[in-house]
Amino acid sequence: MTLEEFYIQVLRLLKVVPPNGTAQAEDRQRVVDMWPNIHKYLLKRKLINFALADSIPDELVIPLGKIVAYQLVDDFGVSDMHMSKLKSEGELDSIPVSKGERQLRKIADTAYVSNRLQPEYF
Q1: Angle between helices 61-71 and 99-108 (to 10 degrees)
Q2: Second label for 17, Cα 20 to 30 Å away, from 3, 6, 27, 91?
Q3: How many CB atoms within 10 Å of residue 15?
């Protein structure tokens, strides 16, 4: 996904942009300004491995979108109910670990096997 599409996706998660709508320039700019900080943080923790200006790999779009969206809830005045959902899905370094961070950890872990093993019965 291109960065431009990613920015719009984050705004949709925040419910700032309707599903088929376009973003206001100032709303989009808030996401653009937040992205380098989050990218640097996740790169340092080895949860991602692509450059800041690169397109977002498809398998990372959903977890990264949730993480960036949660970081912007205060900027957009998200309702308490929606904010608690975004918190459980996108907060970094939380206990319990958020869904978005868990997904990034699974993808980043090279030893992770996505297929379940079938038990052998004798």
Answers
A1: 140
A2: 91
A3: 14
Is residue 35 within 8 Å of 68, Cβ to Cβ?
Answer: yes
pTM of the model: 0.82
pLDDT tens sequence across 76-106: 888 888 888 989 999 998 888 899 999 999 8
- pLDDT of 112: 55
Who contacts 16 (Cβ-Cβ below 8 Å, separation ≥6)?
Answer: 23, 27, 76
Per the CB < 8 A criterion, the answer to whether 108 and 48 are in contact is yes
Q: How many residues does the chain have?
A: 122
Residues of the chain predicted below pLDDT 70? 110-117, 122
